[in-house]
Amino acid sequence: AQSVTQPDIHITVSEGASLELRCNYSYGATPYLFWYVQSPGQGLQLLLKYFSGDTLVQGIKGFEAEFKRSQSSFNLRKPSVHWSDAAEYFCAVGNDYKLSFGAGTTVTVRA
Amino acid sequence: DGGITQSPKYLFRKEGQNVTLSCEQNLNHDAMYWYRQDPGQGLRLIYYSQIVNDFQKGDIAEGYSVSREKKESFPLTVTSAQKNPTAFYLCASSSGAGGSYNEQFFGPGTRLTVL
């Protein structure tokens, strides 16, 4: 069965600094990988997804992620964080119409 | 505007009562999903449906029931058998065609509190 690990429960970053959120997955075949963002008390919004091709994926809101098969990772990055990026971020792997989510990483942005 | 609506936003229930959470989508999606979210645990799949009149159990289906009589609707009933029902419940849908690489679109969620 597939699984997703997000090692960082909480990250604090200064506004304007870079951000990297880690995601490791366990899955036998080529995975379908996703990053979602959730503002407090809201639903989830898709930031980006990967299922084949270029291993560097561009998403919305200036985010990008890199798929590294050798490390079973799909880390999310943003070069310069804005206060509005404070939220919870979820990595997910897809298989057979279902998604398995990591536990999430909460990002706090300080002025 | 196309999207997913969930109602109510907040729901309070007494122990021993069944309660039904509504989920409606006007995206013409075939597949619909129910997730439960608890702090520090991410989202866990309760039930999903790939087509009308058919649904499958997810990872934590015990104490929950669903129906899929219409394409646009996928209500979730939290029964009295669910031992710890207080949580945030999210409904999602996807086009279904092509399998799991299609984006799932999420509703705004319902926060259920058992008193």
How do the SSEs of chain A run, as a string of H and E?
EEEEEEEEEEEE
Question: C-alpha Rg of chain B, in Å?
Answer: 13 Å
What distance separates the N and C termini of chain A?
41 Å
The largest pleated sheet of chain B is described as: 7 strands, mixed
Overall radius of gyration of chain A: 13 Å
Number of helices of chain B: 0
Largest interface, counted with CB-CB under 8 A?
A-B, 25 and 28 residues
Average pLDDT, all residues of chain B: 91
- Distance between the first and last residues' Cα of chain B: 36 Å
- Our estimate of the beta-strand percent of chain A is over 45%
Poorly predicted segments of chain B: none
Structural features, described:
The complex is a heterodimer of chains A (111) and B (115). Chain A is an all-beta fold. Chain A has no helices and 12 strands. In chain A, a hairpin with a 4-residue loop joins strand 8 and strand 9. Chain A is globular, with a radius of gyration of 13 Å. In chain B, 38% of the residues are buried. Chain B has strands at residues 4-7, 10-13, 19-25, 31-37, 43-51, 54-57, 64-66, 76-78, 87-94, 105-106, 110-114. Chain B is mainly beta. In chain B, strands 2, 4, 5, 6, 9, 10 and 11 form a 7-stranded mixed β-sheet that branches. In chain B, strands 1-3-8-7 form a 4-stranded antiparallel β-sheet, with no helix packed on it. In chain B, 0% of the residues lie in helices and 49% in strands. The mean pLDDT of chain B is 91.
Task: Give a quick precis of the structure.
The complex is a heterodimer of chains A (111) and B (115). Chain A is an all-beta fold. Helix content of chain A is 0%, strand content 55%.
Spell out the blueprint of helices and strands.
The complex is a heterodimer of chains A (111) and B (115).
Chain A lengths: L2 E3 L4 E5 L4 E3 L2 E3 L5 E7 L5 E7 L5 E3 L5 E5 L4 E6 L8 E9 L2 E4 L3 E6 L1
Parallel strand pairs in A: 2-12
Antiparallel strand pairs in A: 1-4, 3-9, 5-6, 5-10, 7-8, 8-9, 10-11, 10-12
Chain B lengths: L3 E4 L2 E4 L5 E7 L5 E7 L5 E9 L2 E4 L6 E3 L9 E3 L8 E8 L10 E2 L3 E5 L1
Parallel strand pairs in B: 2-11
Antiparallel strand pairs in B: 1-3, 3-8, 4-5, 4-9, 5-6, 7-8, 9-10, 9-11
